[in-house]
Amino acid sequence: MSVAYFPGIAQPAPVVRLRGFSRRFGPNLILDDLDLDIAAGEFVALLGHSGSGKTTLLRTLAGLDRADGQAVTIPSARAVVFQDARLLPWKRVWKNVALGLPGRTARARAEAALAEVGLSHRLDAWPLTLSGGEAQRTALARALVREPQLMLLDEPFAALDALTRLRMHELVLNLWRAHRPSVLIVTHDVDEAIALADRVVVLDKGRILFEERIVAERGSRTASVRDLRRRLLGALGVATQSGSYADTVAGGQPLAEAAE
Ligand SMILES: Nc1ncnc2c1ncn2[C@@H]1O[C@H](COP(=O)(O)OP(=O)(O)OP(=O)(O)O)[C@@H](O)[C@H]1O
């Protein structure tokens, strides 16, 4: 698969490189001979039906699951944010963020990260008193403070209301612009994928069914990506007015081309 941003110019090695990557659970092949690169600073959205293997892929990249002996490059500086914030309820917010950080600067680093996510006023709060959005902001701060080269987001905003979700999109994009980690976000939300990502990838039965780079500026995507939205919904098997599932997938970037 090509990851060239500027054809003809030598590219730095990708931060994530998977080649012929497979994962079985018993007799079931969950990830099937995947090739996937993620470039430094690239924001990739991973879509797919329930059971298509998204979380299995993310967990492997997070080091929480093993790869079945294939060529894999994954940076060691990585952090994960899950759908639920997974904070320790007996530790104050700043201590949740500082957890595991070495040395005397831990508190200052945690405070700086919490300031970046807009939670300076909640440093000493108990996790159970946080709103859902605040809890996810804390989880983002906890990831950020580790200065990850790769951020893995597993449906991080799925449990939030629509307005909070939009605010979180803005926050994540601001953090990403400021720190430029590579990001892989798993989402079921086509509009979220389009709003955030440089590239969208659809997984189906453990294989990449569809992928496309989004070149439009993020601020101007609403109008310009309507067609991509239709094709993504098509790849996900959601009926559209303009054609069948198969036609719509064929209308996306051909996979053979993507594999070049
Ligand atoms: N530890 C495990 N043991 C056995 N089977 C597993 C295990 N983890 C995942 N699976 C199976 O692998 C398949 C893919 O699961 P995975 O969680 O990766 O899908 P997903 O695309 O993330 O789904 P969802 O959108 O519902 O979270 C499922 O059929 C699941 O039952």
TrEMBL record:
UniProt keyword annotations, A-Z: ATP-binding, Cell membrane, Membrane, Nucleotide-binding, Translocase, Transport
InterPro entries xref list: AAA+_ATPase, ABC_transporter-like_ATP-bd, ABC_transporter_ATP-bind, P-loop_NTPase
Pfam families: ABC_tran
Residue ranges of domain ABC transporter in the record: 16-230
This protein's record includes keyword Nucleotide-binding: yes
GO molecular function, one term: ATP hydrolysis activity
Record-linked SMART domains: AAA
Domain of life: Bacteria
Recorded family membership: Belongs to the ABC transporter superfamily.
Name under which the protein is recorded: ABC transporter ATP-binding protein
Annotated source species: Alterirhizorhabdus solaris
